[in-house]
Amino acid sequence: MGPQGRVLGLPLTTVLDMVHEATPVHGSGRFPFYCDAELAERTAGWAAQGIARVQMKVGIARVKTKAGRDPEADAHRGRVVRDAAGPDFQVS
């Protein structure tokens, strides 16, 4: 509790208006290591729970290529997520 909070008897988060009714969450996981079916199932499950966004790692291949990356596989996984959750689902 900061000085203003002590005087008012309130937590600092209330004094600074940092309390929110809701906080957006995102799904996250070991996406590079899921097969398409697992990725789609997990993403659809989050969407069904009202989770409207997912954060995906890119540049990590399931099987390392010579360069260690597979941009085509990243794009494919993005399409799998989009198809499973719908066009309004946010992917970052």
From TrEMBL:
InterPro entries: Enolase-like_C_sf. Residues 64-92 are annotated as: Disordered. It comes from the Bacteria. Residues 67-82 have a biased composition (Basic and acidic residues). Gene3D superfamilies: Enolase-like C-terminal domain. This is Uncharacterized protein. It comes from Streptomyces beihaiensis.
